Each structure stands twice: as C-alpha cells, then as structure tokens.
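Hi support team,

I submitted a single chain yesterday and got back a structure, but I'm not sure I'm reading the token output correctly. Could someone confirm the output below corresponds to the sequence I sent? I've pasted both exactly as they appear in my results page.

Thanks,
R.
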Amino acid sequence: MKQNVLLLLLISFAVAASAQPARRPQSKVETITIQSKVLNAARDYTIYLPPSYEQDDDRSYPILYLLHGMNDTNSGWYERGHVKDVMDQLVASGEAVEMIIVTPNAGGNIYEGFWNGYFDMPGWAYDSFFFSEFMPLIESTYRVIRKKENRAVAGLSMGGGGATVYGQMHPELFNSVYAMSALMAIPGHETAPSQRPDDKMAILTKSVQENSAIHFVEEADEERIQSLRSVNWFVDCGDDDFLLDRNIEFHRAMRDKQIRHEFRVRDGGHTWEYWHSALYTCLSFISRNFGR
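Hi R., thanks for writing in. Yes, this is the structure output for that exact sequence:
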C-alpha cells in the first residue's frame, strides 16, 4: 500500500513539473572593470545583454552607448533610471528591438576630486579613450553588429551633451543620437576661469565651452552639414530644466542649417523622473532607426 502511495506521489510531481511553463530567457546586467592605457586608470562599465544573448550564440546585436551625467557613474542609469526594466518591457511589447546597452564610467563626484567629462582635456583624454580603446574593446568582446546603421549614442545632462558632440565628431559611426536635458554648451561669460591647474570643475567647464554642440552646427560648412544629415537626431528637454535655453539654441541652429531632427519639450525638470520617462521614447526611437 505504501509503495502504491509513493508511486502516485511521484507521478503527481512529474505531471506537475511537466505542466510548468518553460522559463523564458532573461536579460542580464553586469559591471566590468578594465584598465585603461589611455587614461592610466581603472574604469568600470555596466552592460545590458538582451534575453536571447546567451541562448543564440550565432546572433549579433545593435548597440546603444548610454552616457551618464556629471557626478554620476556607469551605475546610475541602471540603479536610478531602471534601464533593464524599461528595456525588458519595451522588448516584450514589441516597441523596441533587442540590443546591447553599455554605459561607461566618465566620472564620479567631482567635488571629491574625481575626473568628469566626455572630452579630451589636460589630464583626462576621455574621448580618445572612448573611441580608440573603449569602443573597440566592447565591440570585439561582445557580439555587436559593427556598422553605423546599428550603433547609437544617448545620454542625459553632461552625457546628453557628450552624446551630441560624439555624433557630431563621428557621424560615420552613429545612426542615431538621443540627447536628454543636454549640456549643449556653456557660454563663456557665465563662468570665470579658475587659476588653479587642479580645479577639475574649471577644466570640465572649459572643455564643454571648447566643444560647444551649438557652435559646431552654427559654424558648419556644407560638407559638415551633409554628414550631420546622415544621423537621426532627437533632443528631449523639460520645460522647467535649467538647460532648456541651451537646447532651444541647439534646435534653432539645426533648423537654420536644415538638419532634420526631433525636438520635444515635455513637462518636467532636471530629474531622474524625467530621464526615466524619456527612456521609453529614446529606446523606441533608436529601435525604429536601427538598420536604416
């Protein structure tokens, strides 16, 4: 009798187990540390790998380079922007394609002495690092479709300005640029130059002034204008954002040069609430343009 009961229990467990739905593949987020020869420093990056990445070894993916803001690091977009949750939701609904998303570390708390910024400056050759070392490393380590049509860059605040200038500097590399609350420029009269060679904030400010995304467009000749027209541009800024005027100036410069772009002013300020909501539009916009 006991043997029969045991047999029935085993059969019941087997039937219950077979009735369970197969576990769906999950996306993955991991943080890696690399040693940069260009920066002579250890740098972290955080990367999102789509659900099918570990199941389909023969598949390669489009890539988004997602840049953080000043005083933040590579973890901010994941811990506060919830990129993984947004991306998983949009992929499940069909509003975004599977892609790799990578966020490099371009800073830390500048008031505690950390370098910040996406441009080359004395003591911090960051855009040289990004294009000569970081991007080649990422695209040789992961299964990336290494073509302009499948590569995008986006960012918020300082990272939004960095993303814009990267797209301007290398339109041959990026299909789309999405700038959120972007630090497009810092007018020279708004800041007094520091006399201290170790003043990282002053060095950062000068680098942004020297890499003005607005001046880049205003001074563009016909060849540069044509190259900028090969990129899909989206500028997204809140109506209460302290950088709104700079974004309007960028929009006007682009419009004057007849460079097609999307420009949206939504309700909100310079906050994570705004940037989190912007991700839904950003990832859908980038997805629609991949491969085009």
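A quick pointer for reading it: Strands lie at 28-36, 41-49, 63-67, 100-104, 120-121, 124-125, 151-156, 176-180, 232-238, 261-266. Let us know if anything else looks off.

Best,
Support desk
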